[in-house]
Amino acid sequence: LKWTKCFDCGQNFHGAVFHALAWAMWKTYLGRPETDGFRCNAMGILGDNLCESRIEEALPVLEASLVLRRRYWPQHEDLILTTQASIGSCLNDLGRLDEALVLKREVYARRVATLGVSDERTILSGSNAAASMIGLRLDDEAKSLVRDQLLPAARRSLRVDHHLTLRLNERLATALGSDPKHTRDDLLEAETIMQ
Asked: What is the pTM of this model?
């Protein structure tokens, strides 16, 4: 925790400070055995940090972190899924959209199975999958996922004004408007959503 959050104000570190601390954390725990939890967490934090500025370098770090978590901590499925989600985002940023969507679908399916459809982490995973679907022009699938599963769950469990519910509305509007087969009603619905 000391590597990620300020003790004085409680804010998470970000930007150059977080980047420097991620490297310092990795260097501190690098000499420990790969079975050491601090070492594995340091690798994951470094990988997440590299995603912000050096995506090509982040991917192998995150993949190594995933291998270690699966090998030594298979009972910590939430950590494994979080690492997979980070890899999916990294692949997306690298333009490897098809691979990213496969991972995002897998993470969403596991979250639904383990946490249920109304958990915030499940809804976030579904939103990430929908974004990838939209990026790949799978608009019908994205609309179905957001309209039929994610938005009802988000409205019920998170509130209408929660940032994730608002993001899902935006995703639905994007899918409606970007679909090449959109109708006038689709465009009107998209406009209504965004108002």
From this structure: 0.82
